## 1
Amino acid sequence: MPFGFIKDVTAKNSRIVAGLDVGSTRVCVVVGEVCPPKKSGTNGDGIAGRENHRGLRLIGMGYAPSRGIKKGVVINIEQTVESIKEAVRMAEEQTGVDIRTVTIGVTGSHIGYIPSQGVIAVKEKEIGRMDVEMVLDAARAVATPFDREVLHVIPTEFIVNGQGGITDPTGMAGIRLEAKVQIITGSASSIRNLVRCCEKAGLEALDVVFQPVAAAEAVLTRDEKDLGVALIDIGGGTTDIAFFHEGHMSHFSVLAVGGGNFTNDIAIGLRLPFQEAEQVKKGHGCTMLSMINSGEEMNIGCGEGKPARNIPRTHLVEILQPRAEELFGLIRDEITGRGFHNLLNAGVVLTGGAVLMQGMDVMAENILALPVRAGTASGIEGPPDIIGNPSCAAVAGLALREAEACFAELDGNGFFHGIKSKMIGWFK
Ligand SMILES: Nc1ncnc2c1ncn2[C@@H]1O[C@H](COP(=O)(O)OP(=O)(O)OP(=O)(O)O)[C@@H](O)[C@H]1O
Ligand SMILES: [Mg+2]
């Protein structure tokens, strides 16, 4: 067992954290060990080594095919529970850790946002952390429909005594503090079902995080968020586009298209069962005819009992290219239609399993007319198959969120205590 030294450690009472991504294609769990950021050097925000070394070492991962989830929403509780159990079992076997608590990611077209603002009078002359919390609470107090749950309150701007454009007012002098925020909400029943699946799988949910918020934390640099960047996660069932500008998320869209559509096209075009089509896509898929040799052949099975056959690879690429063009066309329309194109000075960062297909990055660059890079976790230690994999960005970010919650709970002696669930008071 590679990580036997941490056997019998439980996520509940130690420095072990776990992120759970219940995706449309696969359920994925990563386990990490929290190690305080090195004291040497700061990255300019006053937090020691935050981006260079973020205080998290991933030690293993478990995954299972996703059953019971469609486009980010639970459609079958029992099947989802089984998938979660299978992924958790694999992660536990690999790491020797008994996983009891997780931070869960959520996405899907049920996610929405409401702009809001709050204002408070500052009692002391200097604005403190409590004032910031109070003004954010005031902004959060906007009426949300009973069937929505607030996931995040993202400050976009603070205004002190009428002076706007402030990103952190702590320590400033002033008597009137205003905050402009984006409140990210999700369907209460969708979130509740996800949490219930975790509970049925024997896990306590510490927090529920919108996937792009988690992925951004793992892969985007502060500079990119300041300059303007689009984080695009192309998963199995959905494509999440999150826009960042002036340091914060300013907008997001969820398109109901993903890698599964490519597989469907192959299944129909080459008359293959879905699973076989999935293998062909992963083994030979490419989205650009100009990237392959016209004489290339590939071997495909024809389903049960039928002999394998050789076909030109161009047949496959002719199926995939129009689908990729259509997908990036939709993404381009979303970027330009919302007036973001000129704001994306740092370009586009791609995550999600579907971006692993050959040609996706080049096609993205051609159609979006923006610089594109693959989004892999940075500042986190761990095995290259997790850290260097754009399909693990979101789940790594979930573990990172939990690690950061651990730091917030560090006592004066530098000891970690159990993290309190942020979900107390939810689902009353
Ligand atoms: N090497 C590969 N080549 C092509 N496609 C791939 C490859 N690896 C994974 N995929 C595709 O990526 C998709 C799954 O990606 P991911 O694991 O990010 O999705 P998910 O999180 O389960 O789904 P969602 O985010 O939509 O809920 C599937 O369509 C899968 O076929
Ligand atoms: Mg996903």
## 2
Amino acid sequence: MRARNESAWLIPADQRRVNHALRESMRRYDETDEVDLVVVGCGAGGSTLMQRMARHGWKIVGFDAGPFWDPEQDWVSDEAGSHTLYWTEPRTIGGADPVPLGSNNSGRGVGGSMVHYAGYTPRLHPSDFATATNDGVGADWPLDYDDLDPYYRLIEQELPVAGQDWPWGRPHSYPQTAHPVGGNGEIFQRGAAALGIETRVGPVAISNGRFGHRPHCIYRGFCLQGCKVNA
Ligand SMILES: Cc1cc2nc3c(=O)[nH]c(=O)nc-3n(C[C@H](O)[C@H](O)[C@H](O)COP(=O)(O)OP(=O)(O)OC[C@H]3O[C@@H](n4cnc5c(N)ncnc54)[C@H](O)[C@@H]3O)c2cc1C
Ligand code: SF4
């Protein structure tokens, strides 16, 4: 478990802070040095790719348009004070029917959008892989649930994911038990039960209990504005 989750131990054991020593010891290259890979954008995709390739000995340089955040210093319990997290430059998706992106639907800085995502980590339903065949809409995936199943398990261990046992589609459980439900959720659960509708507490990539040196969630409720405590 620890070998796959080394990042959970990177926070100094005695403090809830970013390990600044890691930044100082991060490998750096001169402009004339030859490297194996340059990644532009250190979000969920770019950062993960860099980490995995670096573990295999690749020399990699990562660029990001935003800062290297320090949750303790940079993030505040205030929506207006969190606007610097968002990538709000005008962006329009290409294609025949271009869509302008909204104001805070991406992140900027190391960590990208994941520094202020909701943490919700549901698996696809097995039927989602074949919506063209099943429902006549969209396109079928070139792979199915069984192909992804081992990777769901690995990433749920690594994040780690907390959630209630899931009875629908392909029933499965999560490495950590579900977080307690807040006031809104309780009202939703009561209403659904009154209508005879089954509910479950959904999976989130938020540690339920201390994980390595990573502190547990304190239910501060600012996940979308950056988790200051690093849960
Ligand atoms: C508010 C919010 C809530 C979300 N909630 C959920 C959720 O609950 N569950 C879920 O699964 N997903 C959620 N998402 C989506 C998820 O966070 C993203 O899909 C995912 O993080 C995208 O990863 P990425 O690596 O593709 O891109 P990003 O994480 O967006 O990374 C892109 C990076 O590239 C950098 N960059 C851009 N242009 C340049 C440039 N020219 N030069 C250098 N760097 C550049 C940016 O600064 C950024 O760091 C949410 C997203 C947001 C914004
Ligand atoms: S501590 Fe707060 S911001 Fe962090 S995960 Fe928990 S509720 Fe979200």
## 3
Amino acid sequence: MKYNALITNNEKIAKDIYELTLELDSDCKPGQFININVNRPDLLLRRPISISDYENNRLKVIYRTVGEGTKCLSKISIGNKLDVLSPLGNGFPLVKGKNVLIVGCGMGVAPMLYLAKELSKDNNLTIILAYQKKELSYLTQAFDNLGNVIITTDDGSIGYKGNVLDYLKENKLNFDVLYACGPMIVLKNLDLKYRDIKEGYLSFESRMACGIGACYGCVINTKNGLKRVCKDGPIFKLGEVTYD
Ligand SMILES: Cc1cc2nc3c(=O)[nH]c(=O)nc-3n(C[C@H](O)[C@H](O)[C@H](O)COP(=O)(O)OP(=O)(O)OC[C@H]3O[C@@H](n4cnc5c(N)ncnc54)[C@H](O)[C@@H]3O)c2cc1C
Ligand code: FES
């Protein structure tokens, strides 16, 4: 659905990372995303950003300024309205009564907050928040009451020194279901490690055009053929995506 949503917050929370809050009455669930028109005539395509939190008609997203679109978004002030499509994508299936491992890496931490809030109602959570370094970390305390939180950084500036895959090699965690979001290389490694032994759900990214399933510009290879990340995903089961 298309909204003209009021911006109630758009603030920097870490190096090149912003949290945007919109007033929006949208029936959304964890793992879904919104598609934002950044309101510059030469930037025709909307920018997809995951829903990081949703409560009382306040929808939050967290984005990193990597190019023209996200830089333009970071300059839009509170009080303006933003043209967004919401909610898009399939979202994470929510399990009950399980030991759950949540892995968020880099910007992949953002969608895990809303997910962890929902899953913590019915499950025991272990949550790994993985960053390159301290200055790129955010939401480090937001998960504190939701489960057992482990922080990793590649350079050891906070938490465990090493990446999430190193951490999982060194530490045997007891879990039934995996949820992860992060760079493709991390998702691929988690998928290959756990696809035959665990239930799990991974959130993938792809360059998008329409964002609503019409153009097939965002397809990904799966064992059931090409699938649209925007419509059939962005969440795919462990073992569903093929990488060669
Ligand atoms: C389903 C989905 C959810 C996303 N959620 C988030 C989020 O929560 N927070 C966040 O910061 N970003 C998220 N992204 C990525 C975000 O959409 C891009 O960073 C953004 O569109 C870049 O726009 P830009 O105009 O600033 O950069 P551009 O000028 O378009 O590109 C700048 C750089 O970013 C890369 N890039 C652009 N789009 C993507 C993409 N879709 N996937 C991977 N790399 C891309 C380009 O290759 C280029 O290197 C998500 C993407 C998808 C598909
Ligand atoms: S972006 Fe058009 S089908 Fe996914």
## 4
Amino acid sequence: MKQDFSRRQFLETGSCAVAAGVLGTTVPSLVSAQSSTEIIREELSHAWVFHGVGCNVFAMPDINGDGVMMVDGGLAEHSGALVDSVLNTFGKDRIDLLVNTHWHPEQTGSNVTLGAQGSEILAHEKTGMYLRNSVQSALFEGRYGPLPEVGLPTKTISGTGRMKYAGQEIIYGYLPAAHSDSDVWLYFTMLDTLVAGGPVTSGQWPIMDIRHGSWMGGLLKAYETLAQVVSADTVVIPAHGPIINGTDILRMRAMYTNLHLDLSEQLNLGMGPKDVVNMGLLDDYINDFGDPNLFLQNAHRSIQRAFVPD
Ligand SMILES: [Zn+2]
């Protein structure tokens, strides 16, 4: 039986997370040279999430003198407003550590600004590789990069590990070929909070950057990995969309497991991307995630490429 992902549930899990702090607040528009940016701030227990800058941004205040930590930086056009908002929130004048969950422009738009101010930038080694080149991205118009040297990661990771920062123990890991082929997750053990990165979205289907290695098997594996990290009430920050929890990750894992089986079966029967769209394999989830057609086509194509290479 299909699982229920009601919008009500997303609202409830979102407000659960908010209950630990204060209600999400809208920062009055902070106008940058190019655009006006309206940022929604949501306070968690001992951390904040900033919405409205191209992706969800997680930030933690300075403890023990380590400095402010920010995970992802939004699009470059919102970077000035975002950085101002984070600094105002914490009453600080610099962000010491920026983590990129992957290389996409929606996540790395503050790299140059913060790198120029001397912030440490931590990312997977493949994020560094992509940012050193000019690449086309799934959602971004035109080519992105190369970023100037100052916006490149100063420290890279390649697999699973642990680090301590600002009094927190953080476990991190790599999710190969899931969304961008450079995706990392971070789990803050004392906060019981997972910053899940690109493979996880709520209220919308994940983007599959199949041009850069994303495929359905990798996406499913990402959920299998994250399902091992969370417990039912873990606060989960998706790359896009409202905050969810560990139970939602388990439900999504079940949904993608079924979809992977269905798509593999249909491929074996000779069905193409349009055929699987017409079959309505994800129609039960339209109310929760929106129109699934693009996601379905990319998911099918990615399996086809994996098993029937050109
Ligand atoms: Zn992305």
